Amino acid sequence: MSGRLRLLPVFVAAYLLFLYAPILLIPIFSFNNAASTTFPLAGFTWKWYVTLAGNTVMLDAARNSLIVGVSVSILATLFGICAARAITRYDFRGKRLTSGLIMAPLFLPEIIVAISLLMIVLAMGAELSLLTVILGQTVFCIPYSMAVLVSGFEGFDRSLEEASQDLGETAFGTFRRVTLPVVAPAILSSLLVAFTISLDEFILAFFLTGTQQTLPVYIWGQLRFAAKLPSVLALGSLMLLASVFLLTLAEIFRRRAENRKILQEVPHG
Amino acid sequence: MADRSMISIHGISKYYGPYPAVSSLSLEIGGGEFFSLLGPSGCGKTTLLRMIAGFVEPTDGSIRIDGQDVTGTPPNRRPTNMVFQNYAIFPHLNVEENVGYGLKRLRLDKTEEKRRIGEALEQVRLSTLGSRKAHELSGGQRQRVALARALVMRPKVLLLDEPLSALDKKLREQMQVELRSLQQAVGITFILVTHDQYEALAMSDRIAVMFAGKLAQVATPKEIYQRPVNRQVADFLGGMNFLSATVTGDTNGKVAARTDIFGDVVLEKPPGFTVVEGKVTLGMRPERLRLLWEGETAAKEIRGTVSNRHYFGETTHLSIAVDGLSAPLSIIETNNYGADDLPIGAGVRLAYDPDALVLLAE
Amino acid sequence: MTAAAEPSFPPATARQWRRSEEARGLALISPTFLYALALLFLPVLIVFLYSFWTQDYLTIDRTFTLKNYRQALGEPIYQDLLARSLYISLTVSVITVVLSYPIAWFISFHGGLNKNFWLFVITIPCWTSYLLRVMSWKVILGYQGVMNTGLMKLGIIEQPLTSLLYNANAVIITLVHSWAAFAILPIFISLEKIDRSLIEAAADLGDGPIRRFFRIVLPLSMPGVISAFLIVMIPTVGDYVTPQLVGGKEGVMIASAIQASFGKAANWPLGAALSVTTMVIVTLLAGAIVLGLRLIVRGIR
Predict the structure, then answer these.
(1) What is the mean pLDDT of chain B?
(2) Which of A76, A105, A114, C286 has the smallest CB count inside 10 Å?
(3) Structural domains of chain C, count
C-alpha cells in the first residue's frame, strides 16, 4: 500500500501536466510576438487580440454563436426539464425506452448524428441555416442537460410540495414559492452546461449551417492558414476564459443544489 | 381531556385497486386530546392521517373537523397542519422564513407576522436560530422548525407523521417529553402516527391500535397495555405469556375458566367476545409474575425451573419452565435481589395475581 | 408505509390511479421524446433507407440494392479506413481507461474532502474548445513544434523528428487527451459506490492489497470501467476533426470518407451505407467487449 501511495501522486501530477500543458499553450502563444508557434518565445504582444477586435467576420461568427448558444441552452433545458421531471417523479411503462432514445446521442458517433440530420433537412427541402444548427445541437445537448437536471430533481422531496399545500398555499403558489426555487440551481446549471457545449460544438454546426458561421466553424476555416494561427489562438484564449467562467458558475450552482439534497438525506443528529 | 368531539370519522375507506389501505373505519377524537395511531408498517395509519390532512381522498366515508364536513376539501383549506416524517423543511429558506411560510398567505401586517413567528420559535425553544439556513440545522432542530411552522398557523388539529423516527434514542426520549408538554401548553388536538408502542404509551391520552386497515382497539394507554382485547394487540404492545384454558362457565359479563397452572379463574369479558368450542386464550404480562425469595410467601404461587436468562442492565428477563406448560413463562425482574445471578436449572417459586390475567380474542 | 408514492388526489381505483400516474409521466416526457424521435430516430432511419438506394448525380433510385454495402465492405480503401478507425478507437479506449483508472482511484480513495474540486480540475480541460485542443497538439507535435524544438534544445536529437505528426499515433495521443474526463467520471462514480467496509472485510479475511484490488475493487467498479470504455470508444470511431488536423494520410479515419461522400463525391447512399456499417460494427464490438470484460472479471474471482 505504501509503495502505491508514493507512486500515485507522481502519476497524478504527470497526468495533470499531460491534461493542462496543451491547453496552456493556447494563451501562451496568443501573447507571442511572432506568427510561428515555436519556442523560444519572441516577446509579449497584444496585437493578436487587437486584430480580433477589427475582424468583422469573426465578430459575426461570435454573434451567431451567441444566438445559437442561448437558443440551444433554453431549448435543451426546457426539453430536459420535462423529461427529467417525468423520470424522477412518475413511474410509467416505456420509461427505459423513451429515456434511452433521448440519451442516445451520447452513444452515437457525432458525425452520424450530423449527416443523418443533414439528410433529413435536405430531404425535406429545408434551407440550412442557424435554425438547423439550433435544432440539431438541441438534440445533442438534451442528454447533458438531462443528466444535470435528473440529479437535481432526484433530491427534490415531494413532501416539500405537500408541506406547502398543508400550510395553505395553492398549487400555483407552491410551484412558485417552493418547486421553482428549490430546483433553480439545477436549471441554471443545465443552461450553462448546454450553452458551453453549444459554444464549442463543431461537427453539427459544420454540417448543418448555411452561409452563417458559428465560432468553431470560423476557426476551422482559419486553421488552414498558418499566418492566422496566432489570432485564432487569441480567440481561443478568450473562449477558454469564457468556458472556464461558465463552468465555474455551473459548478457553484450544482453544489448549491447538492447542499439542498444533503439536507434531505441526513435526518440524524 | 376529550371534552367535545374535534374529529369525527365515519365509515371511511381507502382502496388501492382491490386492496384496502383503510376499510370502513369510524373514530371520534376529542378537542385537546393527544391521540396516537399505533400499528405496524402497512397497517393504514399513515393513510388515515393523510386522509385527515387531505392528501389522500377517501374512497368512501366522511371526515368532519370541528363540526364541519371536510371530505373533499384540499389540504390548504383545512384547519389542520402537519409535521412530516422527514420534516420537509424548505431548503431555500432560513428558519424564520420557513416558520413564516404559511403566514404570508394570511397577509398580516409585518409586526404581527414577526410577533407570531417569534412566539412560535419561542414555543419550540429556537429563538436564537431564526436566521440559520435549513442545512445548518441538526435533526432535532429541524423537527422543532417543522413544529413551529405548523403551530404558527394555529391549527385546530396538529398531525404528526412519525416525527421522532429519524432521531436517535436519547433525543427521541427527550422530544417525547417536550412534545407532550407542548401539547398541554397549546391545548389543541395532536394526532400522532407511530409504530413505536413505548412512544404511544408515554405520550398519549388515548391510543388507537390498527391492523390491516382496521381499528383493533381504542383506549387509554393503561387499558390498552393491561387489557388488550386480542392476541395481536397484546403481542404488539409488549411481552405476554399466552395460556390456553377450558371454559367452565359463560355468563353475560364474565367467563369462568380452568387453567393448568393457575387453577380456576373468573375473567371479565371484553365487548363482542364470544367463546369458541369451550376454549379461550388468556394472557399475563411478564412483569406481573414475581420471583419469591427464601422465606417469602404469597397467596398464589407456582413452582418452576429457570430455563433461560437474559441480562438487560436494569432488568433480567427469565424463562421459567413449569410442569404442565408447553412453553416456559417469561418474567421480568429488576436486578435488586440477584435475579441476574440465578443459575440455569435452579428451582424457583413465582407469585402471581389472578386479576392480572386477561381474556384475549384470537 | 408507501404514503410518499401516493398522488395528492388519486382517482377511486388503483387501476385508474396507475393509469393516471402512467399518463402523467408519459405526457410529461412526450415533448422531449417526440423531439428525439423526429430529430434523431427518424434521421437515422432515413440514413438506413438511403443505404439501400442508389444515386446518379442528383436523382435517387429507390430500388432496393446491396451495392453500397458491397462497396463499403468490399473495397480495400473502405476496409482499410474501417480497420484503422476500429484500431485507433480501441487503442484510445484501452489507453484512456488504463490511465484514468488510477486517477479515479486517487480522487475516490485519497481525495478527502476535496473530491468535487479534483473532479472540477480534471474536467475543465475537456470543456475547452475541441478544435483548439487538437490544434494545440499540432503545435506540440509539428516539425518546428514544441516537442521538436524542446528535444533539440536538450540535445537529445539534432534534426527535428518528422515521425511525430501526421500518423495514427498522433491521432491516438490527441484523442486520449480529449476523452480523459469522460473515462474518469464513470469509473469514479462506480468506485464511490463501493462500500468501504467490503474492502475492510476482504482485508479481515486475509487478502493483501493486490488481492483486495483484483477480488473486490476491480469487479465492483467494472460497470464504471465498461461505461468508460464505451463512452470513449463509440464516439472516437467516428471522429472527424482529429484525423483531419493531425492524422495526415496515415491517420485518415472512416469519418473523412463519410464526409466526402456527402460533400465532394456526392454519393449519399454510399455515405449512408458506410455510416450504417460503422454503427453496426461499433455496436457488435461494444457488445463483445462488455461480454469479454465481464468474463475476465469472473475469471479473477
Answers:
(1) 90
(2) C286
(3) 1
Angle of helix A215-222 versus helix C130-141 axis, rounded to 10: 20
Q: CA-CA distances (angstroms) from residue B76 to A166, B109, B116?
A: 5, 21, 20
Mind listing the pLDDT tens digit for each residue in A135-181?
999 999 999 999 888 888 877 788 898 999 999 998 888 888 888 88
User: What residues does B245 pair with on adjacent strands?
Assistant: B280
Q: Show the domain range for C136.
A: 77-300
DSSP secondary structure, A19-78, as one string: HHHHHHHHHHHHTBSSSS--SSP--B--HHHHHHHT-HHHHHHHHHHHHHHHHHHHHHHH
Q: Which of A167, A260, A267 sits opposite B81 (nearest CB)?
A: A167
Across B321-331, average pLDDT: 88
CB interface of A with C, residues 133-172, below 8 Å: 135-136, 138-139, 142, 158-159, 162, 165
Q: Which of A91, A154, A156, A166 to probe the B interface (max B CBs under 10 A)?
A: A166
Phi, psi of B237 (to 5 degrees): -90, -5
CB contact under 8 A, B76 and A260: no
Residues from chain A contacting residue C47 (CB–CB below 8 Å) = 112, 115-116, 119
Element housing B81 (H / E): strand B80-83
How far does the CA of residue B105 sit from the closest CA of chain A (Å)? 7
* Cβ neighbours of B88 in A, within 8 Å: 157, 159-160, 162-163
- Rounded to a whole number of angstroms, the distance from the CA of C296 to the nearest CA of chain A is 24
Cell numbers 499531460: residue: A18
If you ran DSSP here, which 8-state letter would residue B262 be given?
A: T
**Structure-block grid coordinates of residue A268:** 440524524
Residue in C8, C32, C140 nearest the CB of A102:
C32
Cβ distance B86 to A260 less than 8 Å, yes or no, reads: no
Instruction: Yes or no: say if B293 and B348 are a contact pair by the CB < 8 Å rule.
Output: no
CB-based contact B86 A267, cutoff 8 Å: yes
Q: Which of B76, B84, B135 is facing A170, going by the closest CB pair?
A: B76
Are the Cβ atoms of B101 and A164 closer than 8 angstroms?
yes
How many CB atoms within 10 Å of residue A57? 11
Q: Is residue B276 domain-shared with residue B170, that is, in the same domain?
A: no
- For chain B, what is the domain count? 3
Is C63 within a domain? no
Is the distance from CB of B98 to CB of B92 less than 8 angstroms?
no
Q: Which helix (H) or strand (E) holds A2?
A: helix A2-30
The answer to whether residues C51 and C271 touch, using CB atoms and an 8 Å cutoff, is no
C135, C192, C240: which to substitute to probe chain A, counting the most A Cβ within 10 Å? C135
Interface test mutation site (partner A, options B78, B87, B175, max chain A beta carbons within 10 A): B87
Q: Report ipTM for this prediction.
A: 0.83
Q: Which domain holds residue B84?
A: 5-231
Residue among A250, A232, A242 at smallest CA distance from A66: A242
Q: What is the C-alpha to C-alpha distance for residues C184 and A43, in angstroms, rounded to an integer? A: 38
- The enclosing domain of C253 has a CATH number of 1.10.3720.10
Tell me how many residue pairs between chain A and chain C have CB atoms under 8 A apart.
241
Instruction: Indicate whether B254 and B169 sit together in one domain.
Output: no
The DSSP annotation for B266-284 comes to EEEPPTT---BTTEEEEEE
Mean pLDDT of C78-101: 93
When mean pLDDT is compared across A127-141, B115-129, C119-133, the lowest value belongs to C119-133
Q: Which pLDDT belongs to residue C62?
A: 79
What are the tens digits of pLDDT across the range B280-293?
899 999 999 989 88
Contact C1 B41 (CB under 8 A): yes
| Domain covering A55-265: architecture | Orthogonal Bundle (1.10)
pLDDT surpassing 70 at residue C217 = yes
Task: Give the residue from B354, B337, B341, B261 showing the smallest Cα distance to B296.
Answer: B337
